[in-house]
Write a structure and sequence with these properties.
The chain is 80% helix and 0% strand. By secondary structure, it is mainly α. The chain has one domain (2-55).
Length: 65
């Protein structure tokens, strides 16, 4: 049971980070082409949040020694 919970936690953390990174890339591309200032203004915070989720620590039970 413990391994299943850790697997779910790792998968959810990774999927959130990848989704935010993809959304940030789409906004950055539209920021260069369609909405120059507003696209980049919104893309940078999404990129920073995705970096946070990539680096986020898991709960103590799932940490590897």
């Amino acid at each position: 049971m413990k391994n299943n919970f850790c697997l779910f936690e790792r998968f959810s953390k990774l999927s959130i980070a990848i989704t935010l990174l993809a959304f940030s890339a789409i906004l950055a591309i539209s920021g260069f082409t369609v909405f120059p200032f507003f696209g980049m203004l919104i893309a940078v915070p999404f990129f920073l949040v995705s970096v946070y989720f990539f680096r986020a620590h898991m709960s103590g039970a799932c940490e590897l020694e």
